[in-house]
Write a structure and sequence with these properties.
By secondary structure, this protein is of the alpha+beta class. The chain has one domain: Phenylacetic acid degradation B (Ubiquitin-like (UB roll)), CATH 3.10.20.520. The chain contains 2 helices and 3 strands, in the order E-E-H-E-H. It has a 3-stranded antiparallel β-sheet with strand order 2-1-3, with helices on one face.
């Protein structure tokens, strides 16, 4: 009986690209790579075409903390009770003009 040796799986990286006409990075996908440098090279090859990207961010997925969609209610409902966050709470002087 022989046992096959399992290769360690490369970590998962989340890829964000900033386009030529944008100021923010946008999540475009995920990929596996052995390290950050390789992840950037792979992201360039996979997610950029025709020189549309000017900057690439890669983040190892295990370092991302995120809320769960099932926590939507408890997470966001408390802000509804904070009336000072609503723009109707403030009186805008006529001198300020349209906003």
């Amino acid at each position: 009986m022989t046992t096959q040796s399992r290769k360690p799986e490369w970590p998962l990286w989340e890829v964000f690209i900033r386009g030529q006409h944008g100021l923010n990075h946008r999540h475009v996908g995920s990929l596996h790579a052995p390290d950050a440098e390789a992840a950037i090279r792979h992201a360039r090859d996979v997610y950029t075409r025709r020189n549309e990207g000017v900057s690439i961010w890669v983040v190892e997925a295990r370092h991302i903390a995120a809320s769960s969609p099932s926590d939507k209610g408890p997470l966001f409902e408390p802000s509804e009770s904070k009336v000072y966050r609503h723009p109707t709470f403030y009186d805008i002087p006529d001198e300020a003009g349209p906003m």
